[in-house]
Every structure is written in C-alpha cells, then in structure tokens.
Amino acid sequence: MTPHDQQGAAVVPTTGRAATWLTRELALLADGRPRAHRFLQRVWRNPVAVLVPLAAVVLGIVGAASPDGDAEWFRRAGLGMLGPGVWDVFADAGLQIGVLVLLPVGVGAAVADALGVSAPFLVSAAQGALVTWVALVAGRRATGVTGAPALPAQWAVGVSLALGGVLADAIVIGHTEEVLIGLLLVIAACSAADGRGRRVGGLLGLAVGLKLWGALGAPVALIGRNPRVVAVAGVVAGVIAAACYAPFLLWGEVNTFDYAWTSNRFGLRELVGPGPSDWVVRVGQGAASVLVGCCVALRRAGSPMTVVLCVIATRLLLDSVVTPHYLGPLVVTGMLWAWASRDRATRRAALAVTLLVPAFVVLPYVVGKQVTYLGYAILMVLVPAAALLGDRRATRTASQEQQHPVAPLLGSQKQRLELVRATTST
Fold it and tell me: Where does the chain cross the membrane (predicted)?
C-alpha cells in the first residue's frame, strides 16, 4: 500500500533507493500497525495543522527571548498608530517599513497588553504562524502550476521556516516582512500564469503595503503575456497601494525619503559614486530589477517563480546594504522553485538544498564579514542562474517527451514494476 496526497499522487518519489526503501517500510507499517500508518498519513496530508502551530510556538519563544531591536521600534510605532498621531508615524525617516506591518504589530501589542501577556511573544507568534501559512499556500500554488507533488514542497519549506532558522533570524532582527513579500510575489506569479488579474493586483498591492520594494514584483503581471491581466493587476495594485500610503502623504508628516543608508558592502552606490541621493540610486536599482524581471517574464516557457527569483537577486546584487534578513526571500523562493520544478533532477536535489538552509543562517555568525558578503554575492548569482538553466532543461525534456511519448510511459511502467517487486518481497 502506497500513501497518497490529496491530489492522488504518491507522497514519496517513484525512483531511487531511498524511495524504494521508504515505500517498502510504509507498506510493512500498514500491514503491521495500521493505526500508526493511518495517523502518519493524516499528519502528512495536513501540513497546515502541524506546521502553523509549531511555528507560532517556536517563533513566539524566539521573539520573547529577543524583544529589542527593530521589533521593539515597530511595536512602539504601531501603537502610535492607534492614537491621535496616526498620520505622523512616518515622520521618523528611519522607519522604512509599510503600513501593513506597523498597524497589525500595533494591534497585536495592544491586545497583548490588554491580556497581560508578553507582546514580543504574541506578535512574533502571530507573525511566524502567518508567514508559515502563506508559505504553505505558496507551495501548493507553485506545484499546482508546474505539476510537481505539493506535499513534499509544503513540508520542506514549512519545516525550514519553523525550525530551519530563516524566520527565527528574521524575528530576532524584526523583519519577517521580507520573507512574506517574497512569498506573496510567488503566489502572484502563479496567479498571473493562471490569468487571474485581480488576484495578481491584490497580492502586489499587499506586498507594497508591507514595504515599498514589493513594487519591484510588478513584472510578474507579464507572465502569460496577457494585456488584460496586466491592466487589471496594475489598477488593483495601484488602488491598494494608494489606500495604504495616500492618507499619510495628505494629512501627515512623511520623511521617509530623507533617509540615507550606511553602506556595508560594494553595490550600486559605490559604482555611481558621490552625487545622486540614496533614493535616486534606489530608483536605479529598482529599475534594473524590474527590467530583468520583465525580460524573464516575457519568455515563452519557464517557471513563474523564476521571475521572482531574478527580481529579488538583482535587487540584492545592486544593494549597498545587505544583512542576513535581506537574503531570506531569495532563500525561501529558491527552495520553492526547486521543490516545484518541472525538472526531476532539480526536485531530487531539492532536499539537499533545503538541508543547507540552516548553514546559510549560521554563516554570518561563524565567518568574517568579507567571507559572508562573498557568499551572499555567489548566492545572488547562483540561485537565479540555476533557475534559468533548470527551466531550460525542463522545457527541453518536455519537448522530447512530446516528440517521443512512448519512452516516458515505458520508463514509468518499468519503475512501477520495480517498486511492486521491492514492496512485495520479504
């Protein structure tokens, strides 16, 4: 007996020694302990019920253990939005964060105060649960577009967020919104592939409401090259973004664009040199990211997630300021791409990629800055390059299978026969 996921596809791979061993062990468990087998099946089929509460508890504890830094700053600003000074929250030029982060954080902190519980714990738990849930949705949507198994992708990405350190690092720094924006752009890209313009616009608008760089995800609307999707998405995203920020621009004091960053690595700022303001350089950085994204989105074939990967990687590669939480969306989006890839070789390598995520999180704390930034630069180039090459290989394989449809069928029949022999042998 082979367990199946909710779409009816096998929950374990159909090739490889590990897959054969796992299939045989599950069959033995089904025969010897049917109740345990049914319980494991239910757990496997419901990652949301397991991973979202797990993330809430683990990341709530992490947040309570590190209550200071930007997280505390955002809680104070969010609480300020609940009073008469709501429209002046962006008078602090250093507050480079969006309304859709500050307001929920303020509400969460107020609820925690009313209940007499730790605000850092409650806010961090809610953020961890939300980001993990969105990641599971993104995993299902991404695999739905490419036809890859959904549950392995959901479990891999969900466990990495809850226990692998990516979200924990973001919680400590106070910037879970970075990963959340990357996930929203993935879902928007998949929605664009399905021709859902309003959903694309809504997700892009939410991304901008979280942080202004979410606007760099606009090229995902070009996926599928559907003018109606582009127009509808643009209007919806514009309305949501205006609703988030226009009241502050009209009725409050906004000093957001007076902020200047301190460079910690070589980036576009150093290439341009003295003269243009930081925000002029940021506009150039954003324009380059959008241009790269448009070029990738207008391809005739390839994964929608590759567009998001290329936009994020270009933004980071040209940025003069890079900290560990900046890399979070690139890492998580890269994992999703690998698990949802149409290329079987890539999906087989996805587990190894996922297991390396904790090493990425620990890297800045065990090596020097120069080595860390070099590793970041390699990652910024390697991840989108791997995605583009993987898409090309998957497209070539699909074309060969269309020209010779019998070969894959015979191969799959042979694999199934081998699995049957391995499963039934004692």
Answer: 43-65, 85-112, 119-139, 151-172, 179-197, 203-222, 229-251, 323-340, 349-367, 373-390
